[in-house]
Amino acid sequence: MSSSATLSPAQHTPLYAQHLAAGAKIVDFAGWEMPIHYGSQLEEHHQVRNDAGMFDVSHMVVLDLTGSGATSFLRYLLANDVARIQTPGKALYSCLLNERGGVIDDLIIYFMADDWYRMVVNAATRDKDLAWIRQQAEGYEVEIRERDDLAMIAVQGPNARDKAHIALGASIDAARELKPFFAADCNDSKGDLFVARTGYTGEDGYEIILPAGQAGATWDALLATGVKPIGLGARDTLRLEAGMNLYGQDMDENTSPLEAGLSWTVAFTPEDRDFIGRAALARQKADGPANKLVGLILEDRGILRAHQKIITEHGEGETTSGSFSPTLGKSIALARIPVATTGHCQVEIRGKQLAARIVKYPFARNGKSLFD
Amino acid sequence: MSNVPNELKYTKSHEWVRTEADGSITVGITDHAQELLGDMVFIELPETEANYTAGDECAVVESVKAASDVYSPITGEVIAINEELADAPETVNEDAFDTGWLFKMQPEDAGEIDELMNAEAYAELIAEEEH
């Protein structure tokens, strides 16, 4: 590898050979060569809603934050409050904000011990996240370690946990009794074999973090119990149906969490907790945000996509994510529209105005559509 | 490897054209194109009696992944559309060269059809794209 190249060479996860063997169509994702699908994105989507599928998410960034100052640092760094998760293994979803209250990234943080948290951030924002976190950490007793030695496999679907236990046996027994949104450090591995009951699909399942060298054998064992490989294409339609934001699409540094459907992740109480972006969000909250994120279901024929214009009686808006929903059999979107809008709106697609119904998301969860 | 039937003509933008006995043409997207786009979920067809110049956008095929324009391969009038696709867009994935046809046109100048790529030239084009 050349260290002087300005363009980084494409990176491969430890599961690249498994993807090729499964007939993956490979695309570039933030510098990583990743599977978009292995044949049919629709079939993969249904596989996760109805049975069990697995995703290689090893490109995501695992960080361990350790030290006596970890809690106080994270209470300053994150919009959500890690004081809410002082139980071993408990997970919390949070935004990482800038001073203006814009979203630098979204992440999951796990409390493992008083002096140890694990954080998982997005691959596409890796460099800026790390630079920001390290800069903010100055003056705190906290050590930040990138765990590039680890791979990550998400196993999702109604049968995902059962199949994972059959495939991986006693090694992950510690995960059997996990409640949703909790993680276990299996066999006191210091995080080397970490199983979390979390995901990005709206289905039950695990996210398994494990040594890169064991990823291939683990994937093969899951495959042998009937867990099918799922590409990034179905990952996107699954998360959209589940009403989960995608960073860079539904929100970014110029979007406030209050306008991205993420108010529930901003912990304004206790009032004496100072966190980055608090002052800006408090002002915005007092003034009332201008826009809100809603779900749309297209009533006319067509497909909603990101960045289509929305027309409402209170002004214009925009779709932020859109697709055909395999579970609903209709097109759905997330859209940012003026706060006062309810009922119906028009979406402009190729010069035509089509009717859409405004709904509260999620659209689908636990295998089922939540709408007629 | 994609299927490229010998008896059809092709465009650079991945439409296929079949000349019928009455001089009209049937148009669809190639097997290669459907494979790149993936699972079809919506197809917007032109209006019958609409007139297009060669190269005009005249239809849109949408897969789960993306929307893609379909261009008129020749100059002429649309005389029929494949109405079955409204409820079964996946037909384009399953049978791109036959029951997955999109529309039929009456060409203004039959000579235009001869200028389209033959199967050999199209097979070369997609081989280049794949490398």
What topology emerges from the helices and strands here?
The complex is a heterodimer of chains A (372) and B (131).
Chain A: H1 16-21, E1 25-29, E2 32-37, H2 41-50, E3 53-56, E4 61-66, H3 70-77, E5 91-97, E6 103-113, E7 116-121, H4 126-136, E8 143-146, E9 150-156, H5 160-168, E10 183-185, E11 194-196, E12 205-211, H6 212-224, E13 228-229, H7 232-241, H8 278-287, E14 291-298, E15 309-312, E16 315-325, E17 330-338, E18 344-349, E19 352-359, E20 364-365, E21 368-369
Parallel strand pairs in A: 3-13
Antiparallel strand pairs in A: 1-2, 3-9, 4-7, 4-8, 5-6, 6-7, 9-12, 10-11, 11-12, 14-17, 14-19, 15-16, 15-18, 16-17, 18-19, 20-21
Helix pairs in contact in A: 2-7, 5-6
Chain B: E1 9-10, E2 15-19, E3 25-29, H1 31-37, E4 40-44, E5 51-52, E6 57-63, E7 67-71, E8 76-81, H2 91-94, E9 103-107, H3 111-114, H4 119-129
Antiparallel strand pairs in B: 1-2, 2-3, 3-9, 4-6, 5-8, 6-7, 8-9
Question: Would you write up a description of this structure?
Answer:
The complex is a heterodimer of chains A (372) and B (131). With 372 residues, chain A is α+β, with helices and mostly antiparallel strands. Helix content of chain A is 21%, strand content 33%. Chain A is globular, with a radius of gyration of 21 Å. The longest helix of chain A has 13 residues, at 212-224. In chain A, the strands form five sheets. Chain A has a six-stranded mixed sheet. In chain A, strands 14-17-16-15-18-19 form a six-stranded antiparallel beta barrel. Chain A folds into two domains: 9-288, Probable tRNA modification gtpase trme, domain 1 (Gyrase A, domain 2, 2-Layer Sandwich), CATH 3.30.1360; 290-369, Beta Barrel (Elongation Factor Tu (Ef-tu), domain 3). Chain A starts with 15 loop residues before the first helix and ends with a strand. Chain A has helices at 16-21, 41-50, 70-77, 126-136, 160-168, 212-224, 232-241, 278-287, and strands at 25-29, 32-37, 53-56, 61-66, 91-97, 103-113, 116-121, 143-146, 150-156, 183-185, 194-196, 205-211, 228-229, 291-298, 309-312, 315-325, 330-338, 344-349, 352-359, 364-365, 368-369. Residues 1-6 of chain A have low confidence and may be disordered. Chain B is of the alpha+beta class and 131 residues long. In chain B, 20% of the residues lie in helices and 32% in strands. Chain B has four helices and nine strands. Chain B has helices spanning 31-37, 91-94, 111-114, 119-129; strands spanning 9-10, 15-19, 25-29, 40-44, 51-52, 57-63, 67-71, 76-81, 103-107. Chain B has a six-stranded antiparallel sheet with strand order 1-2-3-9-8-5. Chain B is globular and about 35 Å long. The model of chain B has no long low-confidence stretch (mean pLDDT 95). Classes of the chains: A alpha+beta (372), B alpha+beta (131).
